[in-house]
Amino acid sequence: QVQVVESGGGLVQPGGSLRLSCAASGSIGIITAMGWYRQASGKQRELVGAISFGGSTNYADSVKGRFTISRDNAKNTVYLQMNSLKLEDTAVYLCNVRRLGAAGTRDYWGQGTQVTVSS
Fold first, then answer.
1. How far apart are CA 48 and CA 95, in angstroms?
2. Shortest CA distance to 117 belongs to which of 81, 87, 82?
């Protein structure tokens, strides 16, 4: 089993910044990718950004230029630096860990951390 724990959410004013962290522990095995998703109230979950083991990244168009995802493979930790936050960034942010095991690839999720952008 893999445990996934996020931290760093909170309340911030528009234009502000937050940094989210996500640590994976347990039977880590081979983590091929880690990423952040978000789900706003009444909306579907959407990808925010993801990073592969080799460091390749991809982002949702809505956050490009504002958010940066990074990863510490030695610590099995992924970070999301969020700058120039907007009201529409308000959501629960969930960390995803994709693990390659003997039975194939499996996704693990954290419990989520609330990010609220409000004046």
1. 10
2. 87
Phi, psi values for residue 74, rounded to 5° = -65, -30
When pLDDT is cut at 50, 70 and 90, the band that residue 88 belongs to is: very high
Provide DSSP, 59-90.
Answer: E-GGGTTTEEEEEEGGGTEEEEEE-S--GGG-
Q: Are 35 and 96 within 8 A, CB to CB?
A: yes
Q: In what order do the strands lie in the sheet with 18-26?
A: 2-7, 18-26, 77-82, 67-72
For 31, the 3-state DSSP assignment is strand
Residue-wise pLDDT for 17-50, tens only, equals: 999 999 999 988 898 999 999 999 999 999 999 9
